[in-house]
Amino acid sequence: MRTTTFRSITRNPWWCFWGLLAGSFISVTCSSGSDSGGGTAGGTSGTGPATADCRDYMTEGTIQGPMPDDSMGIATATANFDPSTNTYTGSMVAPGVIMTDVRTYASAADFVDEVKIVGRDLCTSEIYSGGYIATDTYIYDGQRRVIGMQVQEPVDTGEGAYAWTYTAWDDQGRPTTGTLDVPQSGCMGMPVTLEYDDQARKKTTVITPAAGQGSGCRSQTAVSDTWKVYDANGNVVEELHSGSDASSVKTTVTKTGRVCK
Q: HSE of 167 in the Cβ direction (CA atoms, 13 Å)?
């Protein structure tokens, strides 16, 4: 039985810019614009300041941090939202690999609303391909609070099937506590806590392996922390991991597209 690394569980840091996650300790350059397919839901591109009914998302940018081969470098990123299918597709090009992420939403309104609250998810599914392969399925209650996420990774190169379950939420509907079950590695019922700093636009996720778990877990005392920092438009601009998988990834947004309800 292989040891759980938690990098696959908390996501390879190169995926941070897909999230919908402005830190004072980094510099982010943003410019308004639109990509070839990312206009408003009505079919026209938006310009000027974003409103409560619109979202400005990254369509082009650069990512600096550990490459998929663990070397340090810079990769290019592009993304597009297709209002006809309510899908957000992002691609990252790094030496030797092209990674793709496709997030599906129930509506363009959910895509817009997602970033109105720091650290919130409203997509229904997410499919990764390229250097990382996985399918995520999100489960929500009637209040649009995420109550769980089911993940399927390759059994031979990943963690197989595992699940996040959330049991408490803050007054904005964001999960604050839950558990993580990774049957393939014998890591069950790991406590998960999530904290949000709206002022700094930051989300922190902490996974603590429970005592008495099987030898497949990396360590009964290991704690995995992940910090995500968002810009004013909800784009992830920095992601940090602690512990043996310590890393830092910074994203510079160079072009944005607009989607409106």
A: 8
DSSP code of residue 209: P
Angstrom CA distances, 256 to 29, 119, 228, stand at: 11, 19, 20
Tokens of 45: 């591109």
Instruction: Let me know: does 59 contact 254? Beta carbons within 8 Å.
Output: no
Q: Which pTM was predicted?
A: 0.78
Task: Give the pLDDT of residue 53.
Answer: 92
Q: 35 pLDDT band (50/70/90 cuts)? A: very low
Domain ranges of the chain: 7-260
Q: What is the pLDDT of residue 50?
A: 57
Residue 66 has pLDDT above 60, yes or no: yes
Query: Which two tokens mark 47?
Result: 């310009």
Q: Give exposure, 114-124, as e/b (b: 16+ Cβ within 10 Å).
A: bbebbbbbbbb
Please state the separation of Cα 119 from the chain's center in Å. Answer: 9
Q: Mean per-residue pLDDT for 176-187?
A: 88
The DSSP string of 87-156 is EEEEEEEETTEEEEEEEE-S-HHHHHHHTTSTT----SEEEEESSS-EEEEEEE-TTS-EEEEEEE--TT
Alpha-carbon torsion, ordered 233, 192, 99, 131, to 10 deg: 160
Nearest to 119 by CA among 189, 170, 58: 170
Give CA–CA dist 143/131, Å, rounded: 35
Q: Which residues pair with 166 in a beta bridge?
A: 178
Cα(258)–Cα(81) distance, integer angstroms: 9
